[in-house]
């Protein structure tokens, strides 16, 4: 079974990983630590991998799963000029993308038959497995095609999918490539792709990932991307909970909400993401960008991989969010926990 064996190092400059040793510094590159094992693509240009150039001619992409993330991602592929085939369990989102220029498939198998790169973006590992194994996606993929599994399915889920590919289609290249970002960044092409998998296909998928996000972080072999995604989403959960509890504390102390929000906005502690969440809280706007139910799912995925007793705060947060979901708030944005705390 493919598993996380080691991280790929880099000997390039930590200030500019795309610069050759001794060459002058260039602008527009992401930095990377020489010991971090992360390879970051240049913002202005493609990943520099042994002099190869990305191949874009005739690249055909299939996107399976057109929910809050998959639909804007597919739309960006269409806008980038990449021939795109789409499929969704409910036909409405696929038909909307058909009006924008996508080819609409009737089944997962039909969607992937002629695709060079296949993207899955669905709710959980069971949904990924059902599409791939039960609905014929994996069997229908072309020899040598790349499957970019971009759903957040955790470590065990990713290992399950890697085993499926290894046993049934070893001629298909699996990439584990979840994303950092929610619906807004997906629509604005501001996602960060947390990719992992064989180095030899990085240039090949670069035009696809470039159409979806602001940058791609290559983290190592299959499984590393999903691990980093759990780290990212646990931090996000803590940030959301901190915002909610701060606003709720202000209410408990008898402060006017607008005064609390005004004091927090512009604070050096508040990131642009947090500022946008505070603004939505101020308007009592809890429509889902990243739903509480999905946030809870991701925290639980992280806790499954560790000794829960060592991560007491995360466990407490999961319990609180579970109670809010049980009260019917799961389909709202994670910021709805603010409302739950004030009841």
From TrEMBL:
<dbReference type="InterPro" id="IPR006115">
    <property type="entry name" value="6PGDH_NADP-bd"/>
</dbReference>
<dbReference type="GO" id="GO:0016491">
    <property type="term" value="F:oxidoreductase activity"/>
</dbReference>
<dbReference type="InterPro" id="IPR002204">
    <property type="entry name" value="3-OH-isobutyrate_DH-rel_CS"/>
</dbReference>
<feature type="domain" description="6-phosphogluconate dehydrogenase NADP-binding">
    <location>
        <begin position="61"/>
        <end position="220"/>
    </location>
</feature>
<feature type="domain" description="3-hydroxyisobutyrate dehydrogenase-like NAD-binding">
    <location>
        <begin position="223"/>
        <end position="340"/>
    </location>
</feature>
<dbReference type="InterPro" id="IPR013328">
    <property type="entry name" value="6PGD_dom2"/>
</dbReference>
<protein>
    <submittedName>
        <fullName>NAD(P)-dependent oxidoreductase</fullName>
        <ecNumber>1.1.-.-</ecNumber>
    </submittedName>
</protein>
<dbReference type="InterPro" id="IPR029154">
    <property type="entry name" value="HIBADH-like_NADP-bd"/>
</dbReference>
<keyword id="KW-0560">Oxidoreductase</keyword>
<feature type="region of interest" description="Disordered">
    <location>
        <begin position="8"/>
        <end position="32"/>
    </location>
</feature>
<dbReference type="InterPro" id="IPR015815">
    <property type="entry name" value="HIBADH-related"/>
</dbReference>
<dbReference type="InterPro" id="IPR036291">
    <property type="entry name" value="NAD(P)-bd_dom_sf"/>
</dbReference>
<keyword id="KW-0520">NAD</keyword>
<dbReference type="Pfam" id="PF03446">
    <property type="entry name" value="NAD_binding_2"/>
</dbReference>
<comment type="similarity">
    <text>Belongs to the HIBADH-related family.</text>
</comment>
<dbReference type="InterPro" id="IPR008927">
    <property type="entry name" value="6-PGluconate_DH-like_C_sf"/>
</dbReference>
<dbReference type="InterPro" id="IPR051265">
    <property type="entry name" value="HIBADH-related_NP60_sf"/>
</dbReference>
<dbReference type="Pfam" id="PF14833">
    <property type="entry name" value="NAD_binding_11"/>
</dbReference>
């Amino acid at each position: 079974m493919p598993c996380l064996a080691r991280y790929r190092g880099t000997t390039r400059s930590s200030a500019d990983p795309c610069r050759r040793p001794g060459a002058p510094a260039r602008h527009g590159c992401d930095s990377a630590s020489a010991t971090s094992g992360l390879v970051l693509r240049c913002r202005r240009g493609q990943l520099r991998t042994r002099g190869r150039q990305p191949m874009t001619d005739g690249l055909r992409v299939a996107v399976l799963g057109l929910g809050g993330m998959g639909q804007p991602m597919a739309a960006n592929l269409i806008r980038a000029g990449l021939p795109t085939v789409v499929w969704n369990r409910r036909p409405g989102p696929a038909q909307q993308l058909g009006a924008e220029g996508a080819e609409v498939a009737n089944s997962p198998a039909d969607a992937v038959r002629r695709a060079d790169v296949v993207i899955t973006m669905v709710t959980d590992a069971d949904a990924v497995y059902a599409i791939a194994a039960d609905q014929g996606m994996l069997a229908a993929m072309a020899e040598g095609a790349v499957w970019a599994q971009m759903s957040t399915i955790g470590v065990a889920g990713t290992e399950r999918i890697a085993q499926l590919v290894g046993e049934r289609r070893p001629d298909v290249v699996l990439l584990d490539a979840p994303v950092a970002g929610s619906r807004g960044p997906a629509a604005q092409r501001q996602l960060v792709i947390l990719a992992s998998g064989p180095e030899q296909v990085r240039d090949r998928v670069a035009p696809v990932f470039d159409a979806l996000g602001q940058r791609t972080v290559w983290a190592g072999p299959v499984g590393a991307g999903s691990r980093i995604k759990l780290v990212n989403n646990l931090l996000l959960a803590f940030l959301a909970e901190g915002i909610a509890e701060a606003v709720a504390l202000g209410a408990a102390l008898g402060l006017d909400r607008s005064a609390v929000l005004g004091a927090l906005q512009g604070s050096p502690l508040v990131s642009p993401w947090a500022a946008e969440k505070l603004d939505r809280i101020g308007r009592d706007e809890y429509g889902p960008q990243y739903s509480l139910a999905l946030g809870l799912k991701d925290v639980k995925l992280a806790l499954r991989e560790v000794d829960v007793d060592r991560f007491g705060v995360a466990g407490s947060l999961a319990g609180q969010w579970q109670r809010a979901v049980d009260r019917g708030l799961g389909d709202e944005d994670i910021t709805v926990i603010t409302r739950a705390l004030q009841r």
